[in-house]
From TrEMBL:
InterPro entries: AP2-like_int_N (IPR028259), CB (IPR044068), DNA_brk_join_enz (IPR011010), Integrase-like_cat_sf (IPR013762), Integrase_catalytic (IPR002104), Integrase_recombinase_N (IPR010998), Integrase_SAM-like_N (IPR004107), Tyrosine_recombinase_XerCD (IPR050090). SUPFAM superfamilies: DNA breaking-rejoining enzymes. It comes from Paenisporosarcina cavernae. This is Site-specific integrase. PANTHER family: PHAGE INTEGRASE-RELATED, PROPHAGE INTEGRASE INTD-RELATED. Transmembrane segments: none annotated.
């Protein structure tokens, strides 16, 4: 590319066009060179640096940094991913060019995670962070060979969930008799929303006429400020049961009388500012011993499945990104109902009589 002389300043400069990592056209102009040769050398160095930054010659650290800056992550996710990278991924791969990583090195990294981390799920999360870097390099940095492709996935340890039956829940929740914790717990049990989503709810998020709830944010519990939902699919409008709708109508009337200057921007649970999570958590554990707050969400899903709701509708109500996420988490509940599903063929009295006679013979 040509360089130019600045007649007024008696110096040289270069001006060049290039495409950034996203394919957008950019222009670079740099002045102040004493000679034409210096300007040409500077231009060549710049173009070489651009090529290296946007190629598989980039290091894992460079690609990780680019991914963090490019993607829209919540502050909590950025902090978590940076900590995971510094502690576990960087010591293994940080200094390496992305194209030099081999499948054997990936296997060794998996072994390290399995041997040095107490939780299998934590190991899977960190490995997932590593795979995000690889996928980002394939998409934007021209990486041609995925070193994780031939490597088996990290083993998944099935986590046990505690499910509350509706009758048991209705009995226990009556003991939460302060600060409208009872109403908040009922809302989570009957909608499956997460505790951060419940704490972030404002009255403007409720449509009392359509009986719907707009989930569009989640509370950062440590800072007590609203932020994005956990995932893109978590942002959704969900239906309300009639009993929950009546509860919210009653609660709104109480809040209108309680708070001077009440408006739709007030938090449903807290007023001008949201409740403290720590205080709610303490009271919840006193009543629901051995139950986690997140188990309310699992109980909601279990109640839907046990009442014959198909997996596709459960996915939508749980706001999962994929059907496989729902199936992986709650598939065992459908398995337990296999024999019950056979009742769909019991459409005649004769079939029912045959079944009864056979069972009598077995006795």
């Amino acid at each position: 590319m040509p360089v130019y002389k600045d007649e007024e300043r008696k110096t040289w400069y270069f001006k060049t066009r290039y495409k950034d990592v996203f394919g957008a056209n950019k222009q670079k102009l740099q002045r102040g060179f004493k000679s034409k040769r210096d300007a040409k050398l500077a231009e060549a160095e710049f173009l070489t640096s651009i090529e290296n930054v946007m190629s598989s010659n980039s290091t894992v650290t460079e690609i990780f940094t680019h991914n963090i800056e490019y993607k829209v992550y919540s502050p909590k996710t950025v902090s978590r991913r940076k900590n995971e990278y510094i502690k576990h991924i960087h010591p293994f791969f940080g200094h390496m060019k992305i194209k030099d990583i081999t499948s054997n090195q990936v296997i060794e990294f998996q072994k390290y995670l399995q041997q040095n981390l107490a939780s299998a799920e934590t190991a899977r999360t960190i490995y997932s962070n590593f795979k995000v870097i690889i996928n980002h390099a394939i998409k934007f940095f021209g990486l041609r060979v995925d070193p994780t492709l031939k490597v088996p996935p990290m083993p998944r340890k099935k986590t046990s969930h505690n499910y509350l039956r509706r009758e048991h829940f209705d009995e226990l929740v009556e003991q939460l008799d302060m600060n409208h914790y009872k109403e908040m717990t009922i809302l989570m049990f009957y909608t499956g929303i997460r505790v951060g989503e419940a704490l972030a709810l404002k009255w403007s998020d409720v449509d009392l006429f359509k009986s719907e709830l707009n989930i569009n944010k989640s509370l950062d519990i440590s800072k007590r400020v609203p932020g994005p939902t956990k995932t893109k699919s978590s942002t959704a409008i969900i239906p309300l049961h009639n009993s929950v709708l009546r509860m919210l109508i009653k609660l709104k009337g109480i809040c209108e009388k309680k708070h001077f200057g009440f408006n739709e921007d007030y938090y449903i649970f807290g007023g001008p500012s949201p409740y403290h999570y720590s205080h709610f958590h303490k009271k919840f554990k006193q009543v629901f011993t051995g139950i986690r707050i997140h188990d309310l969400r699992h109980s909601y899903a279990a109640h839907l499945i046990n009442n014959g709701i198909d997996v596709y509708l459960v996915q939508q109500l749980m706001r999962h990104a994929t059907i496989s996420e729902t199936a992986d988490t709650y598939g065992h509940l459908y398995t337990e109902r296999k024999h019950e599903a056979m009742k769909a063929f019991d459409d005649t009295k004769n079939e029912k009589m045959v079944s009864k006679r056979y069972h009598r013979r077995l006795k």
